[in-house]
Amino acid sequence: MAGPGEPPEGTPEGAPAGGEDEYRSVVFDESFVRAARLQEYSAQERMGDHARAVRRRPAAARRSYSKQAVILFLLIAVAFGTAIYMGVRHPYQAPVAQRPEPLRMTVIPLAPQGAVPGAEKPAELYAHSPAAQFRVGASGINLPSSRGTSHFSDGQVMTALTTAKDYLVESSLDPDVLTGGTVRSARILLDPRQLDQFDQSFAHPAADGRHAPTGWLVRFDPTKVALASPGIRVQGTLHATETDKDTLEVTSDHTFVYALRPVGKEAKDAKDEHAKASLFTVRRELQFRFDREDLRMRQTELIVSHMQAGPLTCSADAADQLRPLLAGQKAKAGGPAGTDPYATGDATALCGSLAATAQPSL
Prior knowledge:
This protein is an alpha/beta fold. The chain is built from eleven helices and eleven strands. The chain has helices at 30-35, 43-46, 67-89, 122-127, 154-172, 175-178, 184-187, 195-203, 213-216, 265-269, 292-297; strands at 38-40, 54-56, 104-112, 135-136, 225-227, 233-244, 247-262, 278-290, 301-310, 338-339, 352-354. Strands 3, 4, 5, 6, 7, 8, 9, 10 and 11 form a nine-stranded mixed beta sheet that branches. The model is unreliable at 90-96 (pLDDT under 50).
């Protein structure tokens, strides 16, 4: 009887037997046999104590990379090495950050020529002073229109101007700073490389042109005076220039006018008619410097600080805190010449005489 799938007459003569026809296309050549992962034991080997009829052949040796892969690997290595070399030798790499110059500062007291004018209401003092038309607070620090320079964009110039304004606001208008309290709001706006000089100035104040707290900010002796009005009058200018391809400088020139009253022992010792508000004028000329890292971090290097302040006595130590002459008080000795903090121009070197025109005309 013919097997399954065979013709009734059986397999024709010369035709392949049974299921061989379906494997006709499969060729078991030598490479195929060598590549097999399983290998049957020989008849002699199977006569021994072997539980299995086949064994696993050791893994074939890793094929070597093709020629194209090796070439590609070499090209990548060469390109990577070239990039490293150019990064080290590039002629336009960023300049190494230099340590900022120490802040150079000058504080010049201005002595009154007579008794300091006073009034019950600060508004009355302002109305009869050169500050009558000044704006109040930060609105008096106007930003000029910003234009890009050869190496800095409009936005970068504006960042420098706004950072300078922020420093002026925090160091000249913050009530906590003015009354001898916190200094942090001004400190955080400085380049970190200047903080050692800043901190040393407050830890060990000195009138050496480098370590006077009043060179960094405006602050009064809180045991003697207090703000009589929060509405500080301000007027001045800001100007930005490019000094080189990596540096912007901003110069500021502002006059701040404060209304003050005596406190503590000063108020008790003063006569009733003298325990009034009086005006105190501070003119600050500052020079700020910005490198690209300062612009990115919105910080600044303060490199020049020039202050004229009065009414003060020429003998007063104005390095640490300002101790103003108040309403009705006089200076024992005046300065060499009348100095007007409201006017532009150079100031007296050591001490000035506060011009009569700079005081309220009551």
